[in-house]
Predict the structure.
Amino acid sequence: MDYSKLRFETRQIHAGLDHNEPTGSRGVAIYPTAAYRFKDCDHAARLFELSEAGNIYTRLQNPTTSAYEERVAALYGGVGALGVSSGMSAILIAITSLASGGENIVASPFLYGGTYNQFRHSLRRLGIEVRIAPTPSSADIESLVDGKTRAIFVESMGNPTCAVPDLEGIATVAKRNLVPFIVDNTFGACGYLCNPLEWGADIIVDSATKWINGHGTAMGGVIVDGGSFDWSCGKFPLIDGPSEGYHGLNLRETFGNAAFIVKCRVDGLRDFGTSPSAFDSYLMMLGLETLSLRVRHQVEATRRLAGFLRESPKVKNVSYVGFPDHPSHDNAAKYFRFGASGVLTAELQGDLETTKRFVEALRLCAHMTMIGDSITVVTHPASTTHKQLSEADLAKAGVTPTLLRISLGLEDVEDIIADFSQAFEAAGL
Ligand SMILES: Cc1ncc(COP(=O)(O)O)c(C=O)c1O
């Protein structure tokens, strides 16, 4: 079916379902299998040399995961998607499918702490340099791009500060320099709040653990190929050159504008092995069915909580993109539906100790490192997600000792406000 003509709310339910499925099953089947029988030796050989599409082994593909990938690709309007076992794996596979030792990636400074770690430590050990720009402005990003740059990487809304970069401006820089533009769109809720492909991004990575799953029940990541990048520009022999693992096959010539996502699967997933389980793919598909409804509720609840916190004398400041004084207010209004997301940050009065007491006194809100869950989550980045960062990187990422990241769930927000009020008391704020 051509999903492109359907609205997001319809695609999130129907895309990926086989309406002619012989059992008449309403939902997608879970295939708990590691491998698939070949029809004969020639069939097996064709699958292995990539001249015929089909299932070989669940490390590479699985019918449940394929249905989930089709749904995600349809939601973004991409040419293909790849489900993987975590958001971190999506980033790793996307980047290592583009860059080799001696090459570099240029990134915005407003990044999730785990992404910082992967960039600063693991990718560096592989010889891939990640150059972090001092600000996410197009000019600062472009100043770090050189002939060895193989991608520009940003988060559509930075975790945890909610900084929204100028996606269109950075896409122009990427195009001018013939490098793909990768956007971590975890906060963009699988394209419902923000779809960077519509603003010139070429590749999406998304931590499906968050809004896609929506209930904190599984880990996952997904890569989406917008099909927009011209791989024949001479910089990407891994995609437009003889493929060592496939007897010299040229992925661009064979798979056209889907060459990147094929590369991520047939090399990235084959070699790193971070495939999702069929059951987790099923949970992701189920989560997606209610994505827009959940996100709308969360955006509204966040707006209400932001207003309450701004009025509270217990709070030093509230950083919420829906407020006109947020540095990213205009970019959020341009790139995000409703000009907001389901996350805000607040700096409490007091110090590190009172902040810890506050977090420990919460009864309803969960003290966890999680966002996009149906449970409201309060995270203390300085002692959790960003703990490994140096003082300088903490300052760059905007993380202070009393900063809290709050991701609204699906509860009645008035109960969340009551929980905050009692925890302020208990913390002696
Ligand atoms: C923006 C962003 N990208 C990537 C990740 C990593 O995703 P995962 O935890 O699924 O590996 C996270 C996790 O919080 C995130 O917030």
Observations:
- The mean pLDDT is 96.
